[in-house]
Amino acid sequence: MSSLSWSEVFAVHRSRRGIGEQSLLVDRGESGYRNLFLADGRILYMGEGRRGHQEPLGGNLRLLLAYREGKPLRVFLRERPGLWRDLGLYRVEAFRYELWSEEGRYVYWFTLAPGGCAEAPSG
User: Fold this and answer.
1) In the 8-state DSSP scheme, what is residue 11?
2) Residue ranges of the ScoMcrA-like SRA domain (predicted)?
3) How far apart are the first and last CA of the chain?
C-alpha cells in the first residue's frame, strides 16, 4: 500500500475532524483518542468528544447512521505526521455506549470491520 500526504487525504476526507462524511481518520493515540487495532483486522474506534459524556450528535450520529444503514466508510491511518495510509472500506459492525471509568464519563466505542460490502443490520 502506498503512503498518502495530508493533502491527498484531505481531498477525500474534507475535514480536520476524525469523522468525515464518508471517511474516518485513525491513529495510534497521537490525537488523544484511544483507537484499538484488533488482531482480526477490526478497529475499536472511540467516538467524538474528548470532554464530558459523548452525545449522539455530529460524528457520533454519522457513525450511528452508518451502522443502521450499513454504509461503509473509508478509513485513513496516520502513520506519522503528514503521512497516511488508506486502509480501505470499513463498516460499523457494532457500537457500545458505556462508562469509561478511567475518565468517569460515558463514551461511544464503534467496532469497525474491514469490508466494502455491508448489509443493514436486522432489528
Assistant:
1) H
2) 30-85
3) 37
d(CA 81, CA 100): 28
| Structural domain boundaries enclosing 93 | 3-114
Statement: residue 117 has pLDDT above 60: no
User: What does residue 78 show for φ and ψ, rounded to 5 degrees?
Assistant: -80, 115
In a domain, 40, yes or no: yes
Residue 75 lies in a domain: yes
Q: Indicate the SS3 state at residue 48.
A: coil
The number of distinct structural domains making up the chain is 1
CATH classification of the domain holding 108: 2.30.280.10
With cut-offs at 50, 70 and 90, classify the pLDDT of residue 1.
low
Whole-number Å distance between alpha carbons of 90 and 74: 6
Query: What value does the mean pLDDT of the chain take?
Result: 91
